[in-house]
Amino acid sequence: xxxxxxxxxxxxxxxxxxxxxxxxxxxxxxxxxxxxxxxxxxxxxxxxxxxxxxxxxxxxxxxxxxxxxxxxxxxxxxxxxxxxxxxxxxxxxxxxxxxxxxxxxxxxxxxxxxxxxxxxxxxxxxxxxxxxxxxxxxxxxxxxxxxxxxxxxxxxxxxxxxxxxxxxxxxxxxxxxxxxxxxxxxxxxxxxxxxxxxxxxxxxxxxxxxxxxxxxxxxxxxxxxxxxxxxxxxxxxxxxxxxxxxxxxxxxxxxxxxxxxxxxxxxxxxxxxxxxxxxxxxxxxxxxxxxxxxxxxxxxxxxxxxxxxxxxxxxxxxxxxx
Length: 322
Prior knowledge:
The structure is a single chain. By secondary structure, the chain is of the alpha/beta class. The protein folds into two domains: about 1-115 and about 285-320, Quinone Oxidoreductase, Chain A, domain 1; about 120-260, 3-Layer(aba) Sandwich (Rossmann fold). It contains ten helices and 15 strands. Strands 3, 5, 6, 7, 14 and 15 form a six-stranded mixed sheet that branches. Helix 5 links the parallel strand 9 and strand 10. The radius of gyration is 20 Å and the shape is elongated.
């Protein structure tokens, strides 16, 4: 079968012939793959730079999830075992969920990673309550855009967003953002805006896709003055602006701060179970009903070598049609 294969860590995937996968465990199922989204996570895992990278030598198929068709014709979304960017793949039965008839393969493939990168943080780490104020740091990417829509869906009262791409940032009000902060401004201006917002409508939840310097600015803006402060749940999801920050102990002592992360390894088995039984099915239905805005660029598997590093830009997702 044809697949996107890497032969050594850090190399570009190649469109190559490789043996068909064989089901070896009861919790596995063979599917014909229809569509796979290419995400920052996939690139990081393939390069060996992600903490979940695992295998570092030998030929392997890239891609961690996708849309496939079971032998009985049922379409499902699932996590793969041994890679998914191929004509056939093995999915985990327990980490899969049906795709409704009204949702196309490409959109269905684009959604789940963004849902995991937003809904899991909002519901489980932040435990968002109705009417609370949410700050999304780095909202101009595909997952950030999904976080805006889901924060609104889950009852956020006010949504503040940050980003560097001014054109995309300006468009986020259409998705439900109430206030925009450009990270192109100087540090003093950014902190001043955040402090002004926090003084009037306390920031209850921070969903952070950037970390790095912008995280330091946000945390400094939240710093208290010795009076009672609202509880803020700060959830780190990505580190597009750097993996290390400096954090003053005065910030931790001056505010009621919960600092946590949301990603592979931090979720419990029960939370993963809810993702596949309840969260993804609900989001798939919202998308099928046209209630979520999802922008994608579709490419072919045979072009994987030329398109692997492509950045669609403007918060779009690259999806491989197979």
